[in-house]
Structures are given as C-alpha cells and as structure tokens.
C-alpha cells in the first residue's frame, strides 16, 4: 500500500513538474493594457514576447509593446514573434485574427471586457488558470479587495463631494459619461461624475455649462511636455473658464493606460481621492 502511495505521489509530483515546465515555456502575445498588467502582476511577464502599443504599464512592458493598436493588429506581426499563446479581451474583437492564429496552432484566450469588478476578478482567475498561476491569482484578487475596502473607508471622510469631468481627445474633446470605465473610477474615488448621459459624447459649450465641474481630469499625455499650453487647451475654452474648475485652474491627470478598468484602478482612484480631498484627518 505504501509502495503504491509512493508511486502515486511521485507521479503527481512529476505531472506537476511537467505542467509547470509547459506553462513556463509559453511565448505570450497580449492585446490590451489591462491584460498586460494582470499577466505581469501574476509573475509571467518574462514569458511575454510581444504586446500592443497601449501596453506601457508596468514599465517593463514598454520594451515589448511592439505591435499596433488593439483595433488593428496584423496576424503577420504576431506570428513573426513565434507565440504559443495569445491573450486579449473582446473590446476590439477580431474573429478573423483569432481564427488565423488558431489555424497557426497559437492558443487563444479571449476574455470578456471588464466593465465591473466582478468581470475583472474573472479575468484574473482565467488568466491565472491558463498560466498555471492560480495561487498568484488568488493573492492578486485578495489585494484588489483590500484596496477597494481601503477606498470605502476613505470615502467615509468626505464632507462635500466634488464634481469632475473626464475630457480627452486628440482633435476635439470628448466627455466620458455614465457607465464608462472612467465613471467607475470616479465613483471609487468618491467623485461625482455630473455627465448624466451614458457612454461618450463630444463636448459642447452648453454641456460644460450644465455640468459645471469643480475639476477637470484628462490623460497624462494631454499635458505631458506642453507646460502651460497643455492647460490652455482646456482653460482657454470660455465655457470651461467660467466653471469652478476653470476659475480655480483645477486640472489633474491619470495614466492613459488606466482609462480601462484594471488592477491599477483602485490605486488611481486613491491618488485622485488624495488630490481632490487630501489626507483624511
């Protein structure tokens, strides 16, 4: 009996070792900055051979962000990196690309886009399972829960909620409304999003007057390296200049890679909370 137990234990250990080697030998391609952050947080960043150009976080990912935008990836560019596994979400679902990769014997893991925390946890769990890092996935989810609970405690100290709008866009400015990833970020930070519509809409003078924000939030690239000129793009608009945000010249930024719901959303929300409300007494 003991002999059979020993053989069984040895066989199990061997199977686990083979599985670990198999997982570790994966050559991973990632599409989506939020997916990239999860893979690196699970400790599998060393297996990533390529990612889309939005995958700039963490810093180690910049060197492998050699592919195009998630909406316009080419199968040739991906296959040139000899991948064995392709991970993405369905925000920019490309069935033809996925089919071509599968025909080339590249495994594909296409996840549901995270629009809430439950979706995000599912992404973490499925990626962790696929990479043989289930325990690391549990640790990451627990850390996420801890950060969310810290935010809940911080928000109890808010005496006067502030209103902020998220403006972005290369040529014309857009406003992020309700049920967008940024809207959920603001809610985490205890900041009111006064844009009553759902989704994203172009900014108009009338909409700014109605919204009347206390603060403007944009992406880091909108102000990076432009000094006062970057701020003038916003505060130079008369309608914005007439709001509390314009009168007090209140503007802050978040990383462009954090405009999607991801594992760094609570950290970004905490940063916003501190900038808007300060450290609780």
UniProtKB/TrEMBL annotation:
This is Fe/B12 periplasmic-binding domain-containing protein. Residues 134-161 form a coiled coil. Pfam families: Peripla_BP_2. Gene3D superfamilies: Nitrogenase molybdenum iron protein domain. InterPro entries: ABC_Transporter_SBP, ABC_transptr_periplasmic_BD. Residues 27-281 form the Fe/B12 periplasmic-binding domain. Keywords: Coiled coil. The keyword Chaperone does not apply. PANTHER family: HEMIN-BINDING PERIPLASMIC PROTEIN HMUT (PTHR30535:SF4), VITAMIN B12-BINDING PROTEIN (PTHR30535). Signal peptide: none annotated.
């Amino acid at each position: 009996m003991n002999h059979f137990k020993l053989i069984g234990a040895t066989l199990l250990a061997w199977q686990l070792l083979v599985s670990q080697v198999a997982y570790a030998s994966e050559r991973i391609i990632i599409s989506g900055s939020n997916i990239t952050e999860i893979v690196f947080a699970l400790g599998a960043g060393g297996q990533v051979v390529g990612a889309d150009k939005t995958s700039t976080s963490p810093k180690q990912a910049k060197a492998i962000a050699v592919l195009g935008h998630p909406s316009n990836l080419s199968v040739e560019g991906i296959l040139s990196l000899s991948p064995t596994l392709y991970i993405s979400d369905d925000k920019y679902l490309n069935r033809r690309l996925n089919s071509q990769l599968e025909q080339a014997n590249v495994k594909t893991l296409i996840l549901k886009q995270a629009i809430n925390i439950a979706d995000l946890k599912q992404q973490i769990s499925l990626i962790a399972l696929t990479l043989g890092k289930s325990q690391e996935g549990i640790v990451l989810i627990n850390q996420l829960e801890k950060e969310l609970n810290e935010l809940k405690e911080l928000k109890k100290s808010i005496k006067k909620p502030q209103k902020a709008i998220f403006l972005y866009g290369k040529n014309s400015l857009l406003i992020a409304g309700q049920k967008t990833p940024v809207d959920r970020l603001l809610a985490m930070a205890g900041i009111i999003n006064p844009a009553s519509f759902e989704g994203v809409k172009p900014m108009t003078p009338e909409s700014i007057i109605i919204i009347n924000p206390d603060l403007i939030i944009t992406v880091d690239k909108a102000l990076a390296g432009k000094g006062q000129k970057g701020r003038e793009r916003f505060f130079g608009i008369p309608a914005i200049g007439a709001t509390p945000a314009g009168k007090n010249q209140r503007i802050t930024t978040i990383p462009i890679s954090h405009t999607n719901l991801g594992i760094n959303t609570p950290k970004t929300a905490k940063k916003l909370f501190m900038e808007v409300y300060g450290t609780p007494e």
